[in-house]
Amino acid sequence: MSRREKTWWWIAGVVILLYCLFPIAWIVSLSFKAPADIANQQFLPTTPTGENYSAILTGSASDLFMPALRNSFGICLIATFISCILSMFAAYAIARLDFPGKKLILSAALGVAIFPVISIVTPLFNLWRQIGLYDTWLGLIIPYLSLTLPLSIWTMSAFFREIPWEMEQAAQVDGATTWQAFRKVIVPLATPGVFTTAIIAFFIAWNDFAYGISLTSTSAARPVPAALGLFSGASQFEDPTGAIAAAAVIVTIPVVVLVLLFQRRIVAGLTNGAVKG
Amino acid sequence: MTTTTLPPTPKTAPVSAPRGGISDRARAERKLGWMLAGPAFVVMMAVTAYPILQAVYYSLFNYRLTDPENKSFVGLGNYWVILTDSLWWQAVLVTVFITVVTVVVELVLGFALALVMSKALQALRPILRAAILIPYAVITVVSAFSWQFAFSITTGFVNNWFAWLPGIGADTDWFGGKWTSLLVICLSEIWKTTPFISLLLLAGLAQVPDVLQEAAQVDGATWWQRLFRVTIPNMKAAIMVALLFRSLDAFRIFDSIFVMTAGANGTESVSFLAYRQTISRVEIGMGSAVSVLLFLCVVLIAFGFIKGFKIDLAQARGEG
User: Fold this and answer.
1) Whole-structure pTM value
2) How confident is the model over A51-92, as pLDDT tens digits?
3) How many domains does chain A have?
4) For B26, how many CA atoms within 13 A lie in the half-sphere containing its CB?
5) What is the per-residue pLDDT across B54-100, written as a single tens digit (0 to 9) for each?
6) Which of A104, A139, A242, A244: disulfide with A133, CB 3.0–4.6 Å?
7) Which helix (H) or strand (E) holds A259?
8) Which A residues, 106 through 135, put their C-beta within 8 Å of a C-beta on chain B?
9) pLDDT mean over B125-145
10) How far is CA B99 from CA B102, B107, B190, B251, in A?
11) Which domains does chain B have, with CATH numbers?
12) Nearest Cα to B265, choosing from B175, B199, B196?
């Protein structure tokens, strides 16, 4: 590659980096602005301050934000865990066993994946009120499964299909028991796929807004995105912009950490399930 | 226009048990298969099929949550009210506009991103891959807030930075009108979802056989000719899958509109209309009817894509 060409690739790369990070940089910068700075129409704060963070973590807005953060973590982790367990069994069956209905399950997953969330919200809203699941953790965990399960099944069965299952028999021939063969050979091969699926499922649950805002009414179960959507400052005279920005940065930290640690796997997981020749 | 693709590789027929009697082993396998996959299947059906049937039922009633005594059967009356109301058609128009604009821009931009990623220098590749995942992983609400604050007349820097452009000044109120609001909503959506499309297309690019590229190059094809006659035709499946999923996703737009305009100035989408009927106005009957119509729209789009473009999802997903 010539020097000139190399320069062009570097420029293209830097443009992509800017594109991806600019809106994040903006919200971070905004979160460090003092109230007097918020409306100064500048990108950077004049004197960075941690006021907004102390407001949402310990100060006036903390009773809105902290319960929401706890709800988000709790609900998303439980929903991710359940959908991973269920789809692990389903994906094993799809990848390894021959049974009629395999296509039906995959098509059903696809159908559920394209399902408009808002269409389920109306009946659930009414039903949850009648049976007392409205504004509870369980009332969100159940519909979150409709978001995470289809994707988990697709992604995990794509991963499981690539496992060389013959190795299990090979281990048995070499004298391992069935359980040993499974634990020592198959589990290590399957773990990366399960783990990657869990990360992607967590992203999807973490991102939910429609269920969160429709099926909760108090801080008992309201997750962060919904709380952010309804954030309006501790009093009506207080501009909530800084607090929203700080809260937005805090909910972005977990996903950025996951992305930085597991980028290669996440890309494989996202594309494996969708496009494979 | 001629396109170049490799002939399909012959597939080996799966070895199946002779027809007639299925062995005990096969029967046991079937049973085990359903035992393992059954729970996931049942849960999926319980959280989607059941609520949508419930919605169909409610949609036939005049039913307001605050006034349950007066629940009455109105047949298709709710649908008639909705379909003759300009509010519904405006929401459909807005939703279609957002879908078409975002999907077209995302496809072109995503393709460009994928091309750069596939050719990028080894040193840059991991950095780019991590960076590109960040918009994908960021919560939609956060993206919407970031773009809203950037364009807002009080907190934003956009008016200040672009004041040299004609038509933009310190008092340009982006959220004061329908089309400028929609523009910012589209920008936020495009920013967030283009990376996902580009990853799908990147995977598609990797499947284009190198031999074809080299052969075309030897034959003296220009870069553009190779792009349009070799690369794109060979990754049609990946493009179609990306297009289908993004269109359906874009059509369901809700979060960004809620955060950025809350449906003001005629920026209401179909999802937002359904939400407002049900949750804000507790008109369960009317809200259910909008929900059912939204569901039918999504089914129609999916069906149109699959039939119209002959997308074979099984083939695209490697089960052929």
Assistant:
1) 0.85
2) 888 888 887 777 788 888 999 999 999 999 999 999 988 888
3) 1
4) 11
5) 888 888 887 777 777 777 777 787 888 888 888 889 999 999 999 99
6) A139
7) helix A241-274
8) 108-112, 114-127, 129
9) 88
10) 5, 12, 10, 6
11) 85-316 (1.10.3720.10)
12) B175
CA–CA separation, B87 vs B83, rounded Å?
9
At B208 the three-state DSSP class reads coil
Name the β-bridge partners of B61: B73
Q: What are phi and psi of B175, to 5 degrees?
A: -95, 15
Structure tokens at B125: 């590749």
In the structure encoding, which two tokens stand for residue A267, read together? 């890309």
pLDDT > 50? residue B17: no
Check B41 against A125: CB less than 8 A apart. no
pLDDT digits (tens, 9 = 90+) for B236-263: 877 888 888 888 888 888 888 988 888 7
Question: Is A64 part of the contact surface with chain B (CB cutoff 8 Å)?
Answer: no
Q: Is A101 touching B (CB cutoff 8 A)?
A: yes
Q: Considering only alpha carbons, which residue of chain B is nearest residue A217?
A: B279
| CA distances from residue B318 to A108, A154, A158, A273, B83 in whole angstroms, order as listed | 17, 12, 9, 9, 41
As given in the structure block, the two tokens for residue A7 are 């320069």
Q: What is the CATH number of the domain that holds A210?
A: 1.10.3720.10
Q: Does the residue A269 lie in any domain?
A: no
The backbone torsions φ and ψ at residue A98, rounded to the nearest 5 degrees and listed phi first, read -110, 110
Residue A91 has, within 13 A of its CA and on its CB side, a CA count of: 26
The interface predicted TM-score (ipTM) is 0.87
CB B127 within 8 A of CB A262: no
Q: How far apart are CA B141 and CA B135, in angstroms?
A: 12
Domain assignment of residue A36, yes or no: no
Residue A147 belongs to some domain of the structure: yes
User: A275: part of which helix (H) or strand (E)?
Assistant: none
- For A143, the closest chain B residue by CA position comes to B47
Q: How far apart are CA A270 and CA B286, in angstroms?
A: 37
In a domain, A44, yes or no: no
Find the length of chain B. Answer: 320
Separation CA A275–CA A271 (nearest Å)? 6
Q: How far is CA B288 from the centre of its chain?
A: 22
